[in-house]
Design goal:
This protein is of the alpha/beta class. It has helices at about 45-50, 75-80, 95-110, 115-120, 185-195, 215-220, 225-235; strands at about 5-15, 20-30, 35-40, 55-60, 90-95, 125-130, 135, 140-145, 155-160, 165-170, 170, 175, 205-210, 215. The chain has a single domain (about 5-235), classed as Metallo-beta-lactamase, Chain A, CATH 3.60.15. A hairpin with a 3-residue loop joins strand 2 and strand 3.
């Protein structure tokens, strides 16, 4: 098997509910010497595409529709191609469509050229992710698991062949994933995490959207202790 995982760490600012947060994001590149799939590009398209090199980007997978996963997505999907027909397809869960449309509507308002603004407002993902959906790259499979809570359309990506779970911002090392410690729907997120982890091998590597890697066993052992966080968020 020639498939491998490469990581690019980028940083920037993210605004949620009028509050600005500093965010450090993990982008993952999965593939071989010829073709790759990019998971969660953020902030610095140039750095991500530098790691991609001359390989073809076959798809861009977004684990949620928050701003930091959208601000570099078009540049990475284009990968230097001027003709949009040659861009890699962008994939997002339909439940985060509103987040997508809000982001590109804000960009459109900043455009002076009305044609450019109209084009931004009309952009949609090319693929709507579904629970159980499969992507193939370099002879390995990437399975989509819908894990709502962090956002309605949050997903994780599992590759049994690579022994890895890409958990996005659903799950970070030692805690449920969040932006600045703020949880959108923590009870639903915890239910998603529990259902996700229970059937998986304990030694499966977890590669989160932020921070350091961990394992299914480590996080599964912590899961029940996070119930207190849910009670705090209710208060």
């Amino acid at each position: 098997m020639d498939a491998r995982i490469e990581q690019v760490v980028t940083s920037g600012k993210l605004t949620l509910d009028d509050t600005e947060y500093d965010v450090e994001n993990n982008t993952y590149i999965v593939g071989d010497d010829d073709e790759v799939i990019v998971i969660d590009p953020a902030y610095d398209a140039e750095a991500i595409l530098s790691e991609v090199g001359d390989r073809e980007v076959m798809a861009v997978l977004l684990t949620d529709g928050n701003e930091h996963h959208l601000n570099a997505v078009l540049e990475v999907a284009a990968a230097g191609e001027d003709d949009e027909e040659n861009w890699a397809p962008i994939a997002l869960h339909r439940a985060d469509r509103l987040l997508w449309r809000d982001f590109f509507s804000r960009l459109a308002k900043e455009e002076e050229d009305e044609d450019d603004a109209k084009a931004l407002r009309s952009i949609e993902p090319d693929i709507w992710l579904e629970d159980g959906g499969i992507f193939e790259i370099a002879d390995v499979q990437l399975e989509i698991v819908h894990t709502p809570g962090h956002t309605p359309g949050s997903v994780c990506v599992i590759s049994e062949q690579l022994g890895s779970l890409f958990s996005g911002d659903t799950l970070h090392r030692g805690r449920p994933g969040s932006i600045g410690g703020v949880y959108e729907d923590l009870r639903k997120q915890l239910n998603s995490i529990g259902a996700l982890l229970t059937p998986l091998p304990k030694d499966l590597q977890i590669l989160p959207g932020q921070g350091e890697e961990t394992t299914v066993g480590e996080e599964d052992s912590r899961w029940e202790t996070w119930g207190a966080l849910a009670q705090e968020s209710d208060d």
